[in-house]
Amino acid sequence: MTYSLLIKLFLRSKVAIIGLSFLFFSGVTSILIGKEFISKQQKKVETTSFYQKNHISKTVKFQQNEMGLLLYYLKFAYVNQVEPLTGLSIGQRDIYLGIQQITIRNLEEKKYDSDLSNPAALQLGNLDFSFVLIYLFPLIIIAFSYNVISEEKEDETWKLLCIQSKNPWYIIFQKLIIRYVSIVGVLLLLLSIAMILLEIPLKEAFLATILISILYVSFWFLLISWIISWQKSSSYNAISLLSIWLFLNVVAPAFVNNFLLAKYPIPEALKTSMASRDGYHRKWDEDKESTMIKFYKHYPQFKKYKLPEKSFSWLWYYAMQQMGDDEASTYSSAMKLKLLQRENVSNITGYFLPSLHIQLQLNNLANSGLQNQLEYLDSISSFHEMKRIYFYPKIFENRPVSEENWSSHKVAFFIQKNQVNWLALILPPFIIISILIFLIFIQISKIIK
Amino acid sequence: MLKVAQQTSKQILQRNSTKVILCLFSIILLYAGIIGKIQYNNFEKIRIKYQNEVRSSWVNSPDKHPHRMAHYGYIAFRPKSALSVFDYGLESYLGNAIFLEAHKQNTTNFSEASLSTTMMRFGEISIAMILQLLFPLLIFFLGHNVISSDRENGTLKILIAQGLNMRSLIIGKILGVLFVSSIIFIPTFIYSAILHFSISSFNNEWTNFLCAFLLYSISIIIYSCIAVCVSAISNKSKLALVSLIGLWLILFVALPRSTQAFAEKIYPTPSKIAFESGIEEEIIKEGDSHNPDDKHYKNLKDSILRTHHAVSIEQLNFNYAGFQMKEGERISSQIYNKHKQNLNRVFKNQNNLMSYTGFLNPYICIKEISLLLSNTDFETYLDFQEQAEKYRYELAQEMNDLQIKLIPNKKLSDTAKTYSISKHHWATLKDFNYTKPKITNLLKNNQIPILALIYWIILTIVILIVYPNKIKVL
Question: Inter-chain contact B50–A267, Cβ cutoff 8 Å?
Fold first, then answer.
């Protein structure tokens, strides 16, 4: 009986209607933005494969004589495939270049090329679902619940409640449950809309997304319940809850991030491009033999190709290009190590900051974080290596261009294997939630005494 | 009026919560300044070291063919603005290194954001960020009840009955809030000045710095005015507080991101592949130097031979390959620059749309002017890219000129050593030295936020003149 009455009371209030519809509409907008992002990526892939087909056939037509010269020009696209889930959490995908067009020449000079983007827009960030969930949901939860107790006291209905009801705290509990259920309801509604619009398969990754979203919302509810159970004034609750929101969502992550950037500067990034440039270009001035010795050491299988007596040969040229990559490799792996360090520290920080934890996890599930980028970069290197190994003998033997089936060189894709690490996903929020439940119990037992 | 101000600030300072919040703010500000300086020093140390390395390896390159040098190229590093210690602005999202070589315009790579985890997207703490984003909230918190609490406990009636008019009351209250804010605000600027001084002794950036001080002073006046006015019309302090927080969330959190999404929708950024293939197509249409039957280059060759009364290239007294490359470089960079400008126009349009919301949202207008003053804005970045591209063009053409002048036309046999020129030529190419754009130019090109600021100043004055008479005392 009381439940239906309280539900009516809640749903008739202006705050509830505005709050829930605000969440709903911003959620739907964010999903549409995600959809737009994905379809834009798909369009880019289509443009790229169309371009690649033209580019290869045209270049092959002009460069019929020398395999080495043809491969100097030919570009092969390699795509970091987006998942439907990326539409929910765009993460760092707007910063990184998701389609690389590489030649079999020096890779390190090209590998870190950036996409065309408006830095002002990047800095503001995307209005994706993860933003709505991490920033806006807690605010609405705060708006719904900060005065559940204090309002009764300030309007002096509390005494009335105490007289009329055997257990006034049970009514407060019911009120909070109604708010919790309505918020989770909107969340699930949004996720099902996302599932349809983005065509997300109902697999482990999506289930994990649903689960951590619910855990995140639950965390905020418990936190708020604990704070309001101190029975302070509405203003006190509003200010302290907003401060907590600011701390968790703005100040603390920024605080740690700045520390991270200052603690782990990455000079290796700049050094990599310098080393690969020197590694290749300087070889023109050096003794050919020394370059070839290094090249044969890297690829013993190509020892059978001997340098011709000419001043220029493609064997020497590609050996020089190879040195660009080989000599930059110490710096590029040092850079990767630093990036992993940064990733590691932010993961650890995430154990303590639920907002950061959920963002990192959503990005992991959506293949849109730094981890994905690092794996993509590694994968580009293997793709590049594969092309090299395939074409090197053909160049060194100067096989006829017409022998190759050029139309078989289509756009290739990197698809990250998604393995949900359930422990890392659930344990941190689970611990925080348990602590909050414990604190609330202590508070309740104090009140009942 | 001053008495009201004095009374108000005393009241605010008596609250325990005020003391706690002021302490927290000071800690965050101190941290932001220190970390900003460390980051600046780290970056500049690395940049200067590598910039020198690039220069010395260019100058010390051995004798070689000038076209090899054109491909060896240069790497230009973007210097951090000295005022980035105060306002990071877009710094972290801007590329830091660009490889400059013949025939090809590369992207500016290795932005801090591209080397960062997702945490970066939660934002960064700089002194300016605190003043822009968190300070207004502090002012709202300090000022939300300055009038409403008087109304709640009935002292408002007494004050007015004693002959105080509403306008002086409001202005007095604003001054009171301002006084408390300046307990943090003024030391913050002294602190920033010290930080700034520690990295760049006196130079013309101090004008920018003082302008920034003025800008933020205006901003706290505007926000104090908003806080006190909302307090004046609210019956309850609680209500004033909730409305102010709501206003903050809409203006500072929700509106900027949605405007950005909207701008991207109206002015979509072209994909990189479309951008690059567009340039490539146009260059081929103009003249494809890789196509042996290309008309443009055939005509060029014929006319050159005719004017020099020569039958074959070998008879020319300059290097024809170099001449042809010079022509190719001219055409391709012309086309590239045209496309790049179109692309920049798309970005400008997106950003202008954002700037227009500065008329609704003081946060945007203050943020954008602060970026300009700190040279951490988009325009300055474009200026860097343009200067780098100009340098790249000069480098390529200077090497082409050397080839035209010094390399013979005669084709060498397969086994002969390639032509080369003496290494002393390399030093004639001057080093890449980036010069910052003049602030007056930046402001001239970005009038919208300035106009928005003027609008906010006028609006504040008008409200203070007109509004108080309409407020009910009871």
Answer: yes
Mean pLDDT of chain A: 92
**Better-scored residue on pLDDT, B270 or B294:** B270
Regarding predicted confidence, which is higher, B288 or A145?
A: A145
Q: Do A92 and B277 touch (CB under 8 A)?
A: no
Of B227, B240, B212, B256, nearest to B363 (Cα)? Answer: B256
What digits encode the pLDDT tens for the residues B60-96? Answer: 999 999 999 999 999 999 999 889 999 999 999 999 9
Residue A330 predicted with pLDDT over 70: yes
Provide the pLDDT for residue B474. Answer: 62
Residues 365-404 (B) with a CB less than 8 A from some CB of A = 378, 381
Burial, B294: exposed, middle or buried (Cβ in 10 Å; 0-12, 13-18, 19+)?
middle
**A6-15, A62-71, B37-46, B344-353: segment of lowest average pLDDT:** A6-15
Contact B97 A273 (CB under 8 A): yes
Alpha-carbon gap: A121 to the closest alpha carbon of chain B (Å): 6
Residue B202 in this model has a pLDDT that exceeds 80: no
Domain ranges of chain A: 23-146+192-263+353-448
State whether residue B270 sits within 8 Å of chain A by CB.
yes
The shortest CB-CB distance from A99 to any of B32, B123, B273 is to B273
CB contact under 8 A, A258 and B32: yes
The CA angle B45-B93-A33, to the nearest 5 degrees, is 165
A246·B38 Cβ contact <8 A? no
Q: What is the pLDDT of residues B23-48, one digit of tens each?
A: 999 999 999 999 999 999 999 999 99
- pLDDT tens sequence across B367-410: 999 999 999 999 999 999 999 999 999 999 999 999 999 999 88
ipTM of the complex: 0.91
Chain B residue whose CA is closest to A370? B117
Residues of chain B found within 8 Å of residue A342, distances taken between Cβ atoms = 115-117
Tell me the C-alpha distance between A182 and A141, whole Å: 10
- Chain B nearest CA to A223, separation (Å): 20
